[in-house]
Design a protein that fits this description.
It is a single chain. This protein is mainly alpha-helical. The protein has a domain of 137 residues: Ferritin, core subunit, four-helix bundle (Ferritin, Up-down Bundle). It is 72% helix and 0% strand. It is built from seven helices and no strands. Helix 2 runs parallel beside helix 4. The protein is globular. The relative contact order is 0.16.
Length: 197
């Protein structure tokens, strides 16, 4: 596990730059499409209210992930290389949150508010986190759930551009889960098409 986490910690700046650039591109691209830059993006068959509802569910997941990583980081349970990776993943979720908020607002919707840290701590059973392993297991569970959730909503969007956005978000969540699964010594899925089912 230490070799794996050291490898992850050795490359955070490159990954941060890549994800940061992707998030900015994602946000700008989604906003441009939703803002009427393309006639196709505003076809009569679009349903912004429906899309906003789906995006708010995604935003709820991002709020939860940000706070879960904050709970882990603030717990004192994470050793330095693992802590660096947790902070990096949290920064990805913050970029996702910002892109989702901008898109929801561009659609004319109201982004769902973040709840209190105490609410997240209760829901995530933070009082049961006693070791670094406990924190990693929680993070892996949340990342897998988020990946599957994003993949499952892609067909529900009335705007195909939002389906692409959800796919990109799912890719980040899957990357996070894969890194965490490796740190936990879990095997990768043996079969194909194991995400989003």
């Amino acid at each position: 596990m230490s070799t794996f986490t050291n490898h992850l910690a050795a490359a955070p700046s490159g990954r941060r730059s890549f994800i940061g650039a992707s998030a900015l591109t994602l946000s700008a691209g989604a906003v441009a499409l939703l803002g009427g830059a393309s006639g196709v993006a505003r076809a009569a068959t679009m349903d912004p209210a429906k899309d906003t509802g789906i995006l708010n569910v995604a935003l709820t997941l991002e709020h939860e992930a940000i706070n879960a990583y904050q709970l882990g980081a603030g717990s004192g349970l994470l050793q330095k290389p693992v802590l660096d990776v947790a902070v990096l993943f949290q920064s990805h979720h913050k970029a996702h949150r910002d892109a989702l908020i901008a898109t929801i607002q561009k659609l004319g919707g109201a982004p769902v508010a973040e709840r209190s840290m105490a609410d997240y701590a209760k829901d995530l059973k933070a009082d049961t986190l006693k070791t670094q392993l406990d924190v990693l297991v929680l993070a892996a569970r949340l990342e897998l759930a988020a990946s599957n959730a994003y993949l499952s909503v892609i067909p529900a969007f009335s705007d195909a551009a939002l389906g692409k956005v959800a796919g990109r978000l799912a890719a980040d969540e899957t990357m996070h889960w894969t890194a965490l699964a490796g740190a936990l010594g879990k095997s990768l899925p043996g079969g194909a098409l194991s995400f989003g089912a």
